[in-house]
Amino acid sequence: MHVQRRGLFNLALGDFISIVFMAFALGMDAFSVGLGIGMQAIRLKRIFIIGLTVGIFHIVMPFIGLILGTYISHNIEGIAILAAGLLLCGIGLQMIIHTFLKKDSPLAPVGFGLFVFAFTVSLDSFSVGLSLGLSGVETVLAIILFGLFSTILTWTALLIGRRTHHLLGTYSEILGGCILFGFGLNILF
What is the rounded distance in angstroms from the CA atom of residue 159 to the CA atom of residue 150? Predict the structure, then answer.
């Protein structure tokens, strides 16, 4: 006899682990860009503000995507799983390809530039939020973890970037893309 625990989110362990890995993969984009930005002369107060802003954007963007994904899943249930898998594979592949095509450009995460930076690194979380809505994953937990992981990874990258040079930037974005692509394949097959 299997005993099911009822928790706040009533989520299976496998689903929770998938959300954690997905949050980590999404945060890796902010991490890789944050490494480069952190190599500039940035004060600790600015690092705190940048990380918080990126985290907020990683909550808002997937929330919008989740709402749209939930709406779509109620109206087109048969195609929902296929669309979720293809979307995650596409995002992961785009992150990997973008890594090789990227040109170095100095980012100034101050004022409007900070919002542009946060929006840019959270665009992929909108699409992932859409696919999570399509697959019916727990909304509140997903967006909280997306924001938390992206904030922590951004802070970590900025602090590492202050101390080191381009050590992991490219590889971290490739890792994040591979994780998303892998989850997309998992949903499809």
Answer: 14
